[in-house]
Amino acid sequence: NPGQVLPALKSRQTELGIKGQHSAGRISGQWGANLFLISRPLAEEVNNRFQYDGKAEHRGLEGFWQGRFGAWGLAASAMILDAERRNSADATLNGKEPVNVPRQTVKLSGSHTWAAPLPVTLQMDLIHEGQRAVTDDNRVKLPSWTRTDLSLRAVQSLGGPYNITWRVAVHNLFDVRAWRESPKEFAHYYLFPMARRTVMASAQIDF
Questions:
Q1: Which of 11, 14, 23, 104 could bond to 40 as cystine, CB 3.0-4.6 Å?
Q2: Half-sphere exposure of residue 173, counting CA atoms within 13 Å on the CB side?
Q3: Closest Cα partner for 155 from 163, 145, 147, 144?
Q4: pLDDT digits over 175-203, tens only?
Q5: Cα separation of 177 and 155, whole Å?
Q6: What span, in angstroms and rounded, lies between the C-alpha atoms of 2 and 24?
């Protein structure tokens, strides 16, 4: 069916959550948690015809906390996901995991700020993503992976409203080798490798 436009369909998302904040002495923070349900239509090639083919149902729980203790900053977030395909023309795919959807994700972050002689912040981030399906039949799956990033940020005042923010960052600090994700496009499966250890530096001028 080349040249034909697929009819417009909508994803639907329902959430129920709670959020709050707290402060006690030098400790302050924000937190939240929510349950969600996402229904997302899928487009697939069925009998040599590209068309909508059922949907993916995503049910999950996610939460976060972030706060400060004096010069220290801490943050954490996590998500647990149960996803499955429904109403596919291929009955063997119903109940399978949609491709390229991790079962869980976790992010942890810690930072420390020195105020003198100029504000300098050192931050470390830990990112974890769980196993995900590569193929529609779920026979091939990517293993989970964990990456660590490190960054240093300094703010230099030039007087008045003028500032320079200097940044140096190392992504994938321990040079982990892994497949980062596995999208599917037009009946083709792709594997994207995680970038090797990368060092970046920048300067941002605010005026």
A1: 11
A2: 13
A3: 163
A4: 999 999 999 887 789 999 999 999 999 99
A5: 33
A6: 63
